[in-house]
């Protein structure tokens, strides 16, 4: 089992949490993490980039000048690639950029990131958020208490924790996600990963 200190919203130690070594204590597999992140970002590309080749450019239906006797190179159309306004040679065409990672790779990548964050001291587990109503001021106080003011912070909360989401969403350098949304890219792209005990247990159960 891997142990981590649980803090409260005031930044003080509140408890100790034992986490599964199979999820939070493995040797990070960096190549798999890279592969999964690249695949995720590739799937975000729309692939709608397009250019017109010589057959798609309008005009140019007539031969620009006669074949012989001008002293110039023969030309068949003003829409050939060497002409201004002509078609593009080997230009991009709409296509899918999607790459595929299987479920075992995705789980291994997430476990690698969580284990690396824990080993590097970049994983912070809180006992709970106690927002009676949305308060950005209170959220900023929590960030300050955890000494994360100048760091890029990723906050993972329960799916139904609306008040916490509304409280943190306007803070600079803080991004917040529901536990059902997290993936390898979300977990790795930060300098501090913050979650509650309940969320840590949810991830542990999902990745075990």
Automatic annotation (TrEMBL):
Query: Which keywords does UniProt give here?
Result: Ribonucleoprotein, Ribosomal protein, RNA-binding, rRNA-binding
Q: Which GO terms describe its cellular component?
A: ribonucleoprotein complex; ribosome
InterPro entries under this entry? Answer: Ribosomal_uL4, Ribosomal_uL4-like, Ribosomal_uL4_dom_sf
Q: Report the record's Gene Ontology biological process terms.
A: translation
Which segments of the protein form a coiled coil according to its record? none
Q: Domain of life, per the record?
A: Bacteria
Q: Which GO terms describe its molecular function?
A: rRNA binding; structural constituent of ribosome
HAMAP family per record: Ribosomal_uL4_B (MF_01328_B)
Q: Tell me its family.
A: Belongs to the universal ribosomal protein uL4 family.
**Entries under NCBIfam families matching the protein:** rplD_bact
Name used for this protein in its record: Large ribosomal subunit protein uL4
What gene, per UniProt, encodes this protein? Answer: rplD
